[in-house]
Amino acid sequence: MRLLLDSALFWTAATVAVIAQAALVWAVRPQTAAPRRGIGDFIWSVLPAAGLAVVLALTWHAVRGAS
């Protein structure tokens, strides 16, 4: 039962984090018609998303290893 709760909490947190990162990347995506932001803003929003993916993968590995 503990593993089920751990998995549910992990996947809930992971889903919320992915949705938030996707919204951030969408908000700063380069515009083709009227560029409002530079590519730097896009890169600085993708880097944390990549870091978050690594943290989520390591956390999932730790949760699965603890069972």
SS field, number of helical segments: 2
Secondary structure: number of strands: 0
Percent of residues in beta strands:
under 5%
The quaternary structure here is: single chain
Global structural class = mainly alpha
CA-based gyration radius: 16 Å
**Could you give a short account of the major beta sheet?**
none
Helix content: over 70%
Round the mean pLDDT to the nearest integer and report it.
Answer: 78
Q: Which outline best applies?
A: elongated
Low-pLDDT runs: none
Number of domains: 1
Give a brief description.
The chain has helices at residues 2-27, 39-65.
Describe this structure in words.
This protein is mainly α and 67 residues long. It has one domain (2-65). It has helices at residues 2-27, 39-65. Helix 1 runs antiparallel to helix 2. The longest helix is centred in the last third of the chain and has 27 residues, at 39-65. The N and C termini lie close together (11 Å). The model has no long low-confidence stretch (mean pLDDT 78).
